Amino acid sequence: MTTKKTGAGRTTRPAPAPRSAPAERGPLAPAIATVAAVAVVGAYVFVSATFTAPPSPARAMVSDGFAPYFSQRWDVFAPNILRVNSALQVQAQWRDDNGDLQASDWIDVTDMELAAVRGIPTPSRISKNSINALSTYLERYDELTPAQQQRVQDSFIERSSDGGFTAIPDAELRAELDGLGDSGEGSSVPFVRYDYMLNRFSTAFTEAYFGRDVERVRWRAQFDRPNEFLHRFDDERQFDLNELTFGWRAAEQADDPSVRGIFADVQTRYTGEERR
Question: Which of helix, strand or coil describes residue 94?
């Protein structure tokens, strides 16, 4: 026991316990650390040499195994770089008072959506309904065989017994497309489903735009590749506009009549022009 003087008396406190001697490290720990360090350095050298060496089976295996975790691509900083601007354009036909079929001009749906933010350097949001719809539609189109692609660019309507035109039945259309495919029955179903969705969208959009009961619609994708950077201020276009047109479809009117009014309100908000 030790004592410490405080004031008039003394107090006692226990003496510090003796320190235990440090345990001696065995020879196993340094050996493990050395082996681990050599393994890490060796793996790094092997991977680096494989990536810099000429193409080989080993390089492909290493790339497949390590690329998802360690490689860094340009799209990390700028994902989905656009080299071509795509636009969805629609056209409609309806009957006039004499019963004659009238065709509209092409309407650029994408341009109408972007009109709401044009000239605003920092818009709060951008509506891209048509861009997203067209992108998904073209993805499913690209999965078709060349023969199927050629067919779907044609019309989906046929002449009826009364001399008019009617939509080709779904089962008949799918059977025809599947007969042109390589993967057998059902290969065209994803495309046909989205084609039907785009048909309903185009019908509602054009009926609201023209204020008429539309009989048939069709659409096209327009691809606009801007001038290269060094020619960005040139008035002359470097690249021509490309278009991919799909044939006429019998209009699919919405079940709820109020849908036309909803689309009209949206178009008014986009363009500032009153539509009813």
Answer: strand
Report CA dihedral (217, 218, 221, 222) to the nearest 10 degrees: -90
Q: How many CB atoms lie within 10 A of CB 130?
A: 24
Write out pLDDT tens, residues 121-177: 666 666 788 999 999 999 999 999 999 999 999 999 998 877 778 899 999 999 999
* CA 138 to chain CA centroid, nearest Å: 10
Query: Where do the domains of the chain lie?
Result: 29-79, 85-271
Amino acid at 267: Q
What DSSP character marks residue 183?
S
Nearest to 203 by CA among 126, 255, 275: 255
> CA angle 185-186-188, nearest 5°?
115
- The pLDDT tens digits of the residues spanning 184-240 come to 667 789 999 999 999 999 999 999 999 999 999 999 999 998 888 888 888 888 888
